[in-house]
Design goal:
6 helices; four-stranded antiparallel β-sheet; binds zinc ion; disordered N terminus; alpha+beta
Length: 377
């Protein structure tokens, strides 16, 4: 540890109200003695401190008794992994920083075993679709695709066997068929594929009524994927030590018109809090102290923290003799001797007038752009 940073010591580095008024007085071109602004009724000062607080925490969570398994005989492989005997006393280093990290996975010593796979025999499982028979039923005959299995099977009996029961349809007239119907015996009327039957023998089973099971292709058993077809499973008990992270924020941001000057200043007071015993600076404004305090107690299973507290005292000053402007004063450098910066902003009525001018300026800019685009066409 080096010498303490002067900005991190507990002493007050807050400029007093008097110093703030003095800075405004100087800004106004006065003597800097603040005598004018301190006099009752000449100026009003109110505190508008800014806050930017962030606390990062790292926790440690331990979970044990996790049942794990892997396909095949992996005893040697699993036994090589980091192991533990008593999880509660097992030490693992807390990861540095506050980025998310992978959990540490441990194997309980002596828990690794290679066991016979209970769900298969020798790495193979009976086919569930055919029940291990290797076959499934299959229709013997199927509808003829040439005639659709309908009345076009035979132009005379329409597949019924009663010759002449059907007049040939309009589009059938003049066409001749070369095969005779096996049902009614008429010549040159039958579908050449099914010869009047409307159905043909199934080509898959060749009319036998059963075929090889679609799922196992007739092999009756499958390779059991869960054990990689080995017939063995390696089991063990595992534990996990994880280090999740979390962050909380508290902010009092600058209003838009003060954002840039307060963002740029070096006057922010910065304090790092690395432990629950670290104390808040004595000059921290009370409202900020109240908002930060609930974040400071140690949370359950918290193992590391880093809180960055940044705050900037800001004084809002109105001067009775100068109602058009509001002045904002804040430290411009670290420590009590860092100087005070003063910026002025239009008071509200003036803002409205300026707002009108801004709208007019935007309208003119849009008109110029439209004209320029028309000239390009
Ligand atoms: Zn198996
Ligand atoms: Zn099968
Ligand atoms: Zn079939
Ligand atoms: Zn026929
Ligand atoms: Zn046919």
């Amino acid at each position: 540890m080096g010498p303490p940073d002067p900005s991190e010591t507990a002493g007050s580095s807050h400029p007093s109200d008097e110093e703030m008024l003095q800075a405004v007085e100087l800004h106004l071109g006065g003597s800097g003695e603040a005598s004018r602004l301190i006099a009752p009724g000449t100026a009003e000062l109110s505190a508008r401190p800014l806050l930017d607080f962030r606390i990062d925490r790292r926790y440690e969570k331990r979970r044990e008794g996790i049942q794990r398994s892997a396909p095949g005989k992996k005893l040697k492989h699993v036994s090589k992994q980091p192991s533990y005997i008593h999880l509660a006393t097992h030490h693992v280093p807390v990861p540095s920083g506050f980025a998310p990290t992978q959990p540490v996975v441990l194997v309980l010593q002596g828990s690794v075993a290679e066991v016979v796979c209970a769900e298969c025999k020798g790495g193979r499982q009976s086919c569930g679709v055919c029940g291990g028979s290797g076959t499934q039923t299959c229709p013997e005959n199927v509808k003829c695709k040439a005639c659709g299995g309908g009345s076009d099977a035979c132009w005379s009996c329409a597949g019924t066997g009663k010759r002449g029961s059907r007049r040939p349809s309009g589009n059938a007239q003049g066409k001749s068929r070369t095969d005779w119907c096996r049902r009614c015996g008429a010549h040159d009327v039958a579908c050449p594929k099914c010869v009047g039957n409307g159905t043909v023998a199934c080509t898959v089973c060749k009319g036998k009524g059963h075929r090889a099971c679609d799922a196992c292709k007739g092999s009756k058993r499958f390779r059991h994927e869960a054990c990689n077809g080995t017939g063995f499973v390696t089991t063990w008990t595992a534990a996990e030590i994880s280090h999740p992270v979390g962050a909380d924020h508290e902010r009092d941001r600058a209003p838009a018109h003060l954002w840039w000057p307060t963002y740029r200043t070096d006057g922010w007071r910065k304090v790092l809090l690395k432990d629950v015993t670290d104390e808040l600076p004595v000059d921290l404004p009370e409202p900020h102290r109240e908002r930060i305090a609930p974040h400071l107690p140690r949370k359950e299973v918290e193992v590391r923290r880093l809180a960055v507290l940044r705050y900037l005292p800001v004084a809002r000053v109105t001067v009775a003799a100068d109602p058009d402007w509001v002045y904002f004063a804040f430290p411009d450098g670290p420590g009590a001797d860092g100087g005070i910066k003063v910026v002025r902003r239009p008071a509200r009525p003036r803002m409205v007038r300026l707002g009108g001018i801004a709208v007019a300026a935007i309208l003119i800019a849009v008109l110029v752009m439209v004209l320029a685009l028309q000239m390009l066409d």
